[in-house]
UniProtKB/TrEMBL annotation:
The UniProt record lists the keyword Transmembrane: yes
Protein name: Voltage-gated chloride channel protein
Biological classification of the source: Bacteria, Pseudomonadati, Pseudomonadota, Betaproteobacteria, Burkholderiales
Sorted UniProt keywords: Membrane, Transmembrane, Transmembrane helix
Gene Ontology cellular component terms for the protein in this record: membrane
TM regions (residue ranges): 20-41, 53-72, 146-171, 183-203, 218-239, 260-280, 323-340, 347-369, 375-397
PANTHER family: CHLORIDE CHANNEL PROTEIN CLC-E, CHLORIDE TRANSPORTER
Entry membrane topology: Multi-pass membrane protein
Principal subcellular localization: membrane
Source organism: Comamonas terrigena
Pfam families for this protein: Voltage_CLC
Segments forming a coiled coil: none
One function term, GO molecular function aspect: chloride transmembrane transporter activity
């Protein structure tokens, strides 16, 4: 007669209890840090919107950020790539100073008009705060990897209000085509609790109304697949453009603090010369507008260039929210061409361009469900997977590894 409760089940209980406790602590730290960051970011954005002329000070803000990192932050200048490398090959605990450095630098970047995101800051803070527990609890390298992934999930979930997507992001972002399921339990717990901690502090996430979707038929599936391919190609274009600008700046401008100074001059001049204020900052108002009314068909390209210049020249913050902008406005432009609902196409672009640029299709499918409602699920799956397959292997995170090639044509030697 088989045993109802195998011994292995009881052996797992202490370990599950340990990770429940650790994930709860990580959630409290990451959720609190994200709440403080979002409050500061809101104040900086409100101040910038009330004083449009401060964009001319962006070069000097960039110089200040560059000097700050040169003086006290050279060891943590890798940002999220530093965190990913520590998960792949654990060496030393991530310095705690990365938290105030990246928080202050991102708020300054937004306050003066750089086109950057916020997820990079949140996940760096979450992972760095989580890593401080390594020495306290004397964790082995394997458990430290899981702890860092838990911090990534908590930071992502708390900054966007998407706990399911956040939980999977910490598992999926490490290596395309492969996930670490041994970290699933703590990542899920930390993501859910971190989101609740942020809400308890009073933060308010952007609300997107549930979108109406057409029946699933041959044309709707084909149209969304075509759009998904375009979303993936734009995601690849963004990743490659950002990398190219970054490589060019490093080659041509050896002095690191001068790179954001020069980038700031280019951005401020373009804002003034092209009347392109809408392309700086997060661009939340324009993202929301893309769900309700037609936008300029070139808006996605404008945001792409401003963000690639900002990130490539060294401003801090991340790329994800600008990718939401790029995707939503591109989806808006494609909707009438494909005879599909405007709001649905904006929502699909919102998640699918991110899926292609970050190589995280499962994360983005879950994000679509959490933000736009379950009815968008089948189309989100088609769009995100199509974008993922067509975006190549060079994403926005350079430390992301290829766990398994996206298709057989590019399968590496030794892969099944």
């Amino acid at each position: 007669m088989p045993k109802l409760f195998p011994p292995v089940s009881f052996a797992l209980l202490p370990r599950m209890g340990m990770w429940l406790a650790l994930a709860s602590v990580v959630a409290a730290l990451a959720g609190t840090a994200s709440a403080f960051f979002l409050f500061a970011l809101d104040h900086a954005t409100t101040w910038r919107d009330a004083h449009h002329g401060v964009v001319w000070l962006l070069p000097f803000a960039g110089l200040a950020v560059g000097m700050l990192y040169r003086q006290v932050g050279q060891s943590v200048d890798g940002g999220l790539n530093l965190i990913l490398n520590e998960i792949h090959t654990p060496k030393k605990v991530v310095p705690l100073r990365i938290v105030p450095l990246v928080l202050a630098s991102t708020v300054v970047s937004h306050g003066f008009g750089a086109s950057v995101g916020r997820e990079g800051t949140a996940v760096q803070m979450g992972a760095a705060l989580a890593d401080q527990l390594t020495a306290v609890f004397r964790l082995a390298p394997h458990d430290r990897r899981i702890l860092l992934m838990t911090g990534l999930s908590a930071g992502f979930a708390s900054v966007f209000g998407t706990p399911l997507a956040g939980a999977v992001f910490g598992l999926e972002v490490l290596a395309m085509g492969r996930m670490r399921y041994d970290a699933l339990f703590p990542c899920v717990v930390a993501a859910i609790l971190a989101d609740q901690v942020g809400l308890a502090w009073g933060i308010h996430h952007t609300h997107y109304a549930a979108v109406e979707v057409p029946p699933v038929d041959w044309w709707s599936v084909l149209a969304v697949a075509i759009a998904g391919i375009l979303f993936g190609l734009v995601g690849m274009l963004f990743a490659k453009t950002t990398r190219a600008i970054g490589a060019f700046m490093k080659h041509r401008v050896p002095c690191a603090p001068l790179r954001p100074f020069i980038g700031g001059i280019a951005i401020a001049t373009a804002v003034w010369g092209l009347d392109a204020y809408r392309y700086i900052g997060l661009g939340i108002p324009d993202i929301l507008r893309a769900f309700h009314a037609p936008v300029r068909p070139w808006d996605f390209l404008g945001k792409l260039l401003f963000t690639a210049t900002s990130v490539g020249s060294g401003f801090k913050g991340g790329e994800v929210t600008p990718l939401f902008y790029i995707g939503a406005t591109l989806g808006n432009a494609l909707a009438p061409l494909l005879h599909m609902p405007l709001a649905m196409m904006a929502g699909l672009g919102f998640v699918a361009v991110f899926a292609g640029a970050a190589n995280t299709p499962i994360t983005t499918i879950l994000m679509a469900l959490e933000l736009f409602g379950a009815q968008i699920g089948p189309f989100a799956a088609i769009a995100c997977v199509s974008a993922y397959l067509c975006s190549g292997h060079a994403g926005i995170y350079q430390a992301q590894r290829i766990g398994r090639s996206k298709h057989r044509l590019h399968r590496q030697a030794g892969q099944p």
